[in-house]
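U., I forgot to send this yesterday:
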Amino acid sequence: MKLSDQALGAIMMALQKSLLEQSDITPVLKGFELEKAPDCKRWGGSGELDVANPPTFSISSRTEEE
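Result:
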């Protein structure tokens, strides 16, 4: 099995979130719930994995007053 584009995006979001928050990425990756991609008929072979619970975060815009 391979990682789908969605799963790779979830890994990149986890990395960006950990860098932004200066936190450990390990708990986020360990918490991923993997599932078969919608077009995958069975486990194994040439199927792909998706992440059911990709990380989310928001960035607040701050204005600095001089």
